[in-house]
């Protein structure tokens, strides 16, 4: 396990710290159990079958080797969801839980995915890399969101730092919290300079930085997420959509996303 120290005065400038996450997750566990205080370290230790001193050392950042069984018990003790578990395993095992990439066939597979994106004619579709750079999009995606045609188009930069998104994404703040949680997850499970640069750029926005400071919530994917869009050039009424995220085998750094209008929304298009 990495023992990482983090300057509390500027936590956004450093990788996610396992110690801080464990403390935060104990707070969340207390809330889930409808208690007025965080889940005590003693209870976590008892559930795991370890000494309280051992757990205190772990939460303090001691370099302790963690087996898969121990991580599973820790996840259960803290009532972690699947996304939090992935972050825990990624940090504790130095990213060993991240899927391997078939580098030999990467270019060919990406080309195939781009063909799938452009062949989609019924719904908006796009392809991004690990840092949410737009690698490809279909005609409908460009019609709904013309910004994808711009040089260096990036989904996260548009959704969080572009004022157009705050108009087009209804209830922007709640969705921004989801996007920020996805950035946190990506930072915790991958080491990528492009991603780090993206996060630093986004956190220059005061509201995004405020959301980031709320706490280390993490979300892996926006799969099945529902939201409404104000796209007057497409429909006079708000368009309700659900996102479907597809991850190619051995190419988990790529995301193939299709936006499906919800029932009743098709008639407005």
From TrEMBL:
Domain HTH cro/C1-type residue range list: 21-85
Tree of life domain: Bacteria
GO molecular function, a single term: DNA binding
Pfam families given in the database record: MLTR_LBD
Matches recorded under PANTHER family: BLL4672 PROTEIN, BLL4672 PROTEIN-RELATED
Family matches, as InterPro entries: Cro/C1-type_HTH, Lambda_DNA-bd_dom_sf, MLTR_LBD
The protein's name in its UniProt record: Transcriptional regulator with XRE-family HTH domain
């Amino acid at each position: 396990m990495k023992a990482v120290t983090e300057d509390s005065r500027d936590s956004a400038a450093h990788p996610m710290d396992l110690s801080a996450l464990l403390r935060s997750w104990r707070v969340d566990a207390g809330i889930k159990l409808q208690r007025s205080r965080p889940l005590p370290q003693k209870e976590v230790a008892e559930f795991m079958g370890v000494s309280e001193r051992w757990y205190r050392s772990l939460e303090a950042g001691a370099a302790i080797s963690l087996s898969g069984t121990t991580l599973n018990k820790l996840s259960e003790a803290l009532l972690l969801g699947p996304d939090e578990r992935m972050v825990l395993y990624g940090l504790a095992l130095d990213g060993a839980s991240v899927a391997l990439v078939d580098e030999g066939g990467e270019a060919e597979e990406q080309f195939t995915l781009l063909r799938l994106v452009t062949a989609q004619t019924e719904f908006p579709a796009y392809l991004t890399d690990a840092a949410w750079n737009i690698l490809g999009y279909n005609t409908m995606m460009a019609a709904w969101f013309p910004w994808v045609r711009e040089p260096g188009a990036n989904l996260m930069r548009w959704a969080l730092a572009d004022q157009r998104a705050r108009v087009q994404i209804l209830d922007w703040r709640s969705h921004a919290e989801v996007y920020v949680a996805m950035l946190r997850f990506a930072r915790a499970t991958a080491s990528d300079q492009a991603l780090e640069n993206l996060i630093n750029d986004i956190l220059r926005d005061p509201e995004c930085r405020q959301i980031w400071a709320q706490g280390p919530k993490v979300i892996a994917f926006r799969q099945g997420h529902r939201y409404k869009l104000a796209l007057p050039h497409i429909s006079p009424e708000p368009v309700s959509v659900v996102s479907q995220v597809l991850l190619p085998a051995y190419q988990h750094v790529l995301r193939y996303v299709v936006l499906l209008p919800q029932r009743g929304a098709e008639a407005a298009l």
